[in-house]
Fold:
Amino acid sequence: MDDRLFTFVGGASGSWRVASSVTLAGAPPPALQALEVVSGGLRERPPGATWCLRGIRSNERYVTRTEKESLLAVQAPLGRPQATHAALIPIRKTAAWWALAQDERRRIFEENARHIEIGLRYLPAVARRLYHCRDLGADEPYDFLTWFEFAATDAPAFDTLLAALRASEEWAYVDAEVELRLVRSDA
Amino acid sequence: MDDRLFTFVGGASGSWRVASSVTLAGAPPPALQALEVVSGGLRERPPGATWCLRGIRSNERYVTRTEKESLLAVQAPLGRPQATHAALIPIRKTAAWWALAQDERRRIFEENARHIEIGLRYLPAVARRLYHCRDLGADEPYDFLTWFEFAATDAPAFDTLLAALRASEEWAYVDAEVELRLVRSDA
Structure:
């Protein structure tokens, strides 16, 4: 079995210390001191955990072959020693987004919001991974968990990346968003 | 909560009688006499059930706005009184399919396989609904559950529809497929 499913466990302890938590839209999470990323989908909340989010790695929904090759050529893996900073940004999109046809979502995602083009500017400094939640079940609180890892010195570049995405047409369809900034507990 | 998640429960009794079961690729299901479609995702297998498949309704992955309008204009709802015949066809696609970029899958799906165009020819006679399984978890046996309802007199047309889809380039990526033909138990 491949490792497609992961659980993000927030609570008092974990490999990542929560440096800040900002709720941009929707309900705020509970107060969290730390976060652990666990392989698999936990059915029971572990002792001490106050927030559990599941996400699954899935196929790409918008990226063309040409864009995929461009991304593969420059993207960085997770777990680089210098990448002591991370961000977990769970996002939910509106019903209006999900009711759009594929070509309409693609147009907003790339032709208008230039989501891929913006992301490419910050590679390989910012490693990223997308986890899907929407189709894990009928009552998931978010549609996506977005995860980013970078060195402390690249934190300003990451801030710029986030600002560019949030200013895009695509973000008009985001109705729940939390930004957890994290630092490796051993850093 | 909307009704996105459903469980298909096979066993000794249910609203649909199993008229035939054919395994086209992959592992065969257990012998089934009947099928029930239940709203929600069952955690426990009901007493007497020998086969449980979960599926979730999701957003469209390939259909453009123009194609969506064409489909909406002619498609039929589920549950029509005359639609006493049904088919449940669970399908799994290969890892090669899922590794393709979005434009490559779209090209195979419609430009080459003409999946939407073929389906349109049999509307409104054949009502259909697609349930997704792949992102429900990491160990689902199928990627999709496809469901069709039609009148007894439209069964030959449905056979023709199936044959056309199975002859397409898209079906080269199908590595598990079971065809259950069903008749309403009260019919």
In short: The first strand of chain B starts at residue 5 and ends at 11. The beta strands of chain B are 5-11, 16-25, 34-39, 49-56, 85-93, 127-132, 144-150, 174-184.
